[in-house]
Design a protein that fits this description.
By secondary structure, the protein is an alpha+beta fold. 35% of the residues lie in helices and 23% in strands.
Length: 240
């Protein structure tokens, strides 16, 4: 094996593992995923079983405790597959969505969800973009009104990767209508099946078709305050 200037033998072993997985499990069938509009859950579970969803996460949750270079190797090989929809499905789960749960989640939240996230049993999406404001975090209009020990969410999200088939959603919500925008956004963990939360539409796209992308709707969706990720009013900084 040729020694890379920046990568160790462990990194190259990871590269070989991912490349072999893609050759055997992705390339022969991914054209069909492009037609169907999503990556089958059994493929994502296989990736979890191989440890590909927990590369940088602690072993206590089932992770491998590798470094950022290992994540780069994973991203390179997923991109090398030439199926960008498949690649982004996995990378949003590992490096855009589940990081909110791990970085800001309480010990109880991590213990409850991280093992299944790393194993590929639960897929995560992050919901920030909205129909009228795009990805302008300060302009978020989805509102969360406190009601006792709960927040009641109302609004919609647009262009959400993994939005159709995810199990957990890290949702950016405006919880203070009077304060500065940068101190008025809160991140919530919302589970699929929560009353008032629905996937209102799966979006058809011209590319990345195997990446399921959705419009999400929140209509009087009641979420416990315990589902806040991090601190109330600090969601802007978590997203940015």
């Amino acid at each position: 094996m040729t020694q890379h200037l920046f990568l160790t033998e462990e990194h190259e072993m990871l590269r070989d593992q991912v490349r072999r997985f893609i050759s055997e499990n992705v390339k022969p069938v991914a054209d069909q995923w492009e037609k169907e509009g999503f990556v089958p859950r059994e493929i994502l579970r296989k990736m979890g079983e191989l440890g590909l969803f927990g590369i940088r996460y602690p072993k206590e949750y089932g992770g491998s405790e590798m470094d950022t270079r290992a994540t780069a190797v994973l991203a390179e090989e997923l991109g090398r597959s030439t199926y960008a929809g498949f690649a982004i499905t996995a990378l949003v789960h590992t490096d855009m969505a589940s990081v909110h749960l791990f970085n800001a989640g309480s010990n109880a939240q991590r213990a409850a969800f991280m093992p299944d996230v790393i194993a590929g049993h639960k897929i995560v999406a992050v919901a920030v973009t909205e129909p009228d404001v795009g990805s302008d975090v300060k302009g978020i209009r989805t509102m969360g009104r406190r009601d006792g020990n709960d927040f009641v969410l109302n609004g919609s999200k647009m262009f959400i990767t993994n939005g159709v088939h995810a199990d957990l959603y890290c949702v950016a919500v405006k919880t203070d209508s009077q304060g500065p925008a940068s101190q008025s956004i809160t991140m919530f963990l919302v589970e699929k099946g929560t009353p008032g939360f629905s996937v209102s539409r799966a979006l058809d796209k011209t590319g990345w078709r195997s990446s399921d992308t959705a419009v999400l709707s929140f209509q009087d969706c009641r979420v416990p305050a315990d589902n806040i990720l991090g601190e109330e009013g600090r969601g802007f900084y978590a997203v940015m």
